[in-house]
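Morning F.,

Quick status update on the modeling queue. The single chain you submitted on Monday has been processed. Sequence for confirmation:
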Amino acid sequence: MMNGTHVKILDGGFSGQLSRHVGTKIDGDPLWTARFLKTNVNAVHTTHLDFLRAGADIIETNTYQASLPGMMRYLNTSERESLDLFTTAVSLAKRAVEEYAREKHISPEQRPLIAGSCGPYGAYLHNASEYTGSYGKNMSQQELMDWHRPRVKALLDAGVDLLALETIPCIKEAEALLKLLKEYPHARAWLSFSCRDDKFISDGSVFQEMAVHCYRTLPLQIIAVGVNCIDPRHVTPLLKNINANASSKQDFIPLVVYPNRGGSCSATGEWTAVPDDHSLNLPISEWLDLGVRYIGGCCKIFAEDIKTIRSEVIRYQARFIS
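Structure tokens below.
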């Protein structure tokens, strides 16, 4: 790690944490947590606060599985009403940040940031294809851009600080998002992939090649590339060579990592295999050495886990303070 480099702590898995505040089932819903933007905004707000109080520097909007056609279909809302729900999502995140800032007496320039969560097209399909990328064979780049555009615009218009383009399983969708981002030249984003193992993204493309390609394609707008919703044991081999030959700041590629707890997602959206109380033992120092500058958690990573991650990052950084 370069001396003095700052690491941003992300939030954790929204679904798991939200489930502690609602009495209804979340996994398996075609809108997943986004349904609560209409049915239980207080629970969404409280979940954001949980992660902020745990030490998150960046929280994501509750929009991973939200899309214009999805909300119109599953919430029976109009196009305008559906777009307004993206504004609601950003407003809830902003309100949580403001409340947290008052609690901690944080100055405006030190306030946590808000990232607009944009999951892949496969999340809308609700068939676990965000873990295969199979739809990339049947859709054009333009179709993917047109599908993502309404929510990207809505989130940016509502005032997010950056975008989280996440769980992207195929290179066609990644390239579509890069091209779409160029339409909003002042926007910043990280791009994180869905990977099937310790070498390939879900569609079979080599992760390291694609990650470097995507970062170099749009270095003024992409703040980091990496992986999310992946078994932690795959992270190190996926990242280990990206910055191996970075001899200067210009060569260095910032990385983003937010793994799941282990386990898998079924075609119906159910998370299985690993219990919530399964101990989380992440090689955080190892990841930071590889160039990770944004770190948090995905499915089944709770607020207390984010607190632990933050503590380990602080302990790591203390090694560089003389």
